[in-house]
Amino acid sequence: QVQLVESGGGLVQAGGSLRLSCAASGRTFSRYAMGWFRQAPGKEREFVAAITRSGVSVRYADSVKGRFTISRDNAKNTVYLQMNVLKPEDTAVYYCAARDGSSFYTTVPSYDYWGQGTQVTVSS
Fold this sequence. Notes:
Layout: E1 2-7, E2 10-13, E3 18-26, E4 32-39, E5 46-51, E6 58-60, E7 68-73, E8 78-83, E9 92-100, E10 113-114, E11 118-123
Parallel strand pairs: 2-11
Antiparallel strand pairs: 1-3, 3-8, 4-5, 4-9, 5-6, 7-8, 9-10, 9-11
C-alpha cells in the first residue's frame, strides 16, 4: 500500500506557472511508476504526464507537451509536475497516481493508488 498526497495547486493567471508535488509514503517509492492526471468539471479524468520508476523515461499528453515537466526525487519519495505557460483550459483537479511497474502508463485503469487531488485554476 502507498499513500499519495498532492500539494501546490492554486489560482494563477494565464501564462503563469505552478509546481505540483506528490509525496508518497508506505512501500518503497522507487518501485512505483508515477503519473499525473486531471479532471475538469463535467469531464472524464485524463492523462497528463507519466514517469518511469527510474525517472529515465517520461510521456506527456499532447495538450501539455512543451509546457509541463514531470520529474521525481526517489530520495524524497516525491514526484513533481512543473506547469508553465498555463492556460484557462488547464483548470482542473490534478491527481497523482502510482503503480508497481517498470514502464510508464497513460490510462486511469493502469494505476492502483491515487491521491486526493489538488485544484488548479487558471484565470484569463
